[in-house]
Amino acid sequence: MKKIIIGLAVLALIVFGGYKLFNNISSGDAITKSVQFDYENVQQYDGTKAYVEVNGNKPYFTEKELTKKAYVKYAALDTLKRVSSTMGCIGTETMPEDDEKKDSMGDNYPTGWNSEKYECIDGDGYSQKRTSCIARFLSGAYTEKRNIITASPFMSNNMNVYEVIIARYIERTSNHVMLRVTPIYKSDELMCRGVLMEAYSVEDDGAGICFNVFLYNAQPGISFDYSTGKSTYTGEYLNLAKVTRDYQYIINNGTMTIHRPDCENADKIGSRNILYSNAEKEELIGAGYTAAECCNP
């Protein structure tokens, strides 16, 4: 009996210690083992930028983690049912075919989901999006609950900028890109404060893709209670939001058309088909897109 009690006490210390150690980078799963990140050292969102570079913009991947064998791995949900981390070696093997059926996210509502509608938010106006840590067009996963987080439209759009860059690089080179996305939580909050995105192109030793950024889960004009996901209108940073835009074009992936960011028709693109890109127009046309006649980008 005494041994059992001692064993349980040790287990409790391990669990509690592990939670305290990793509570701002979700769980202590093996996927995040090499991540060395402290949210407390990140500058608070002030409306002037959508993200900050981390570790000199160099990802934390170890030599052992780098591989050319394509895969996508989802960490287990943590004790609060929050998404922990998603990591993979992304290549043409993991990316779905264009004609593959794109199912909805079903009834998967991640922690912190409390979406409300505001006039200050472009598009459908809702304050939150169910967003894949590794985008569906990179992983082929549409309903995997270990991959879906509660994100502001602002963060979701800026994640998409990086995801499109990775996708176009893979399509152009057929190389592989290591990608890890880690939601960053503060204490026991249910909505993440942002995501850490790390990417590294394997075959060319990072010459094509190499970044490590923390993207803010914020929304110009509103404020979030990250414990619950509830939001309130503040009007802050609405003018500064235009400065943070990190893309040149808005893309309709359904009609395969390129739009200017100020195009009225771009605001009507559904969340499933909208993409954001800072690639050159010629590069997008080379990938099969055409310039929209309505705004002639």
From TrEMBL:
Residue intervals passing through the bilayer: none
Alphabetized InterPro entries for the sequence: Ada-like_dom_sf, DNA/RNA_non-sp_Endonuclease_sf, Endonuclea_NS_2
Key word Transcription present: no
Keyword list, A-Z: Endonuclease, Hydrolase, Nuclease, Plasmid
Any one GO MF annotation of this record: endonuclease activity
Domain called Type VII secretion system protein EssD-like: residue spans: 71-199
Protein name in UniProt: Endonuclease
